């Protein structure tokens, strides 16, 4: 019978779906992506539906602070002032149901923002909590309708103060949030500093130790990004500083998803898998990669190529690869058959002993 089971393993091995599932179970990478600044990138629901991303940052709340009324800018997707962004609530719910964390990213490159004082930071924290997270605002005042996001991302690209106050106020609101009887929602704080260490805009905020994930931008920064061909020394040095400096956070390697996505720092998927990720994966708090942005990733298929490259990197190689997989399937089938046989014999010939077997 064992020989027949192993023959069945050979048949299964020839089925590409089985091999694909076996490979998919090994060596993938968590990917965070920014969505919202290009109408051609597809809907938020489609983005999460690809199964490629663990985190999606809605980009951006681009105006806030110093007396400004906060403005959500999602480019051609919707118009927050007229209320059309509330239609995203269904997509957000579908993303979350699929296990994808959806966060609001504040800041971005438009630079129509800054905080003027600790009280300004406190007011912004209350606004974010009430209008995008678990706070009390309802109806039309919530730009994304009844959606409750998973946290706030700091993409601050203009040096200014008081973002540490903002982080503390948000963390306090998170902590005080009521918890349902069976466990409540966990809210996240994330950030996207530039790779020169420490970051000019977020050093004080990150020093609070309150951030869960930090996706460091290793692009548009030649002194600390990967230098092709094969020179990872600058990246290695900066990566060591970031991972050592943020022991309480998981650190992600932030990269452009295509040559067009940034002025410099692009690394093709094969090189990333074979030369760059081996440099960063050894850190205890390595979390994955961040991509700017979904629009560029959709056009280039970068994340699809990366996952394929990682699967190829981690699967058994050489002549023994197929026999290795065959042996694993054979052992599994033998185990299943043995369990079935034991239960069959006990049930039909020794029913009085069934309670002891169970």
Automatic annotation (TrEMBL):
<comment type="similarity">
    <text>Belongs to the glycosyl hydrolase 18 family.</text>
</comment>
<dbReference type="GO" id="GO:0008843">
    <property type="term" value="F:endochitinase activity"/>
</dbReference>
<dbReference type="InterPro" id="IPR001223">
    <property type="entry name" value="Glyco_hydro18_cat"/>
</dbReference>
<dbReference type="GO" id="GO:0000272">
    <property type="term" value="P:polysaccharide catabolic process"/>
</dbReference>
<dbReference type="InterPro" id="IPR050542">
    <property type="entry name" value="Glycosyl_Hydrlase18_Chitinase"/>
</dbReference>
<keyword id="KW-0326">Glycosidase</keyword>
<dbReference type="InterPro" id="IPR001579">
    <property type="entry name" value="Glyco_hydro_18_chit_AS"/>
</dbReference>
<dbReference type="GO" id="GO:0005576">
    <property type="term" value="C:extracellular region"/>
</dbReference>
<keyword id="KW-0378">Hydrolase</keyword>
<dbReference type="GO" id="GO:0050832">
    <property type="term" value="P:defense response to fungus"/>
</dbReference>
<feature type="domain" description="GH18">
    <location>
        <begin position="29"/>
        <end position="313"/>
    </location>
</feature>
<keyword id="KW-0146">Chitin degradation</keyword>
<protein>
    <recommendedName>
        <fullName>chitinase</fullName>
        <ecNumber>3.2.1.14</ecNumber>
    </recommendedName>
</protein>
<dbReference type="GO" id="GO:0006032">
    <property type="term" value="P:chitin catabolic process"/>
</dbReference>
<dbReference type="InterPro" id="IPR017853">
    <property type="entry name" value="GH"/>
</dbReference>
<keyword id="KW-0732">Signal</keyword>
<keyword id="KW-0119">Carbohydrate metabolism</keyword>
<keyword id="KW-1015">Disulfide bond</keyword>
<dbReference type="InterPro" id="IPR045321">
    <property type="entry name" value="Cts1-like"/>
</dbReference>
<dbReference type="Pfam" id="PF00704">
    <property type="entry name" value="Glyco_hydro_18"/>
</dbReference>
<feature type="signal peptide">
    <location>
        <begin position="1"/>
        <end position="24"/>
    </location>
</feature>
<keyword id="KW-0624">Polysaccharide degradation</keyword>
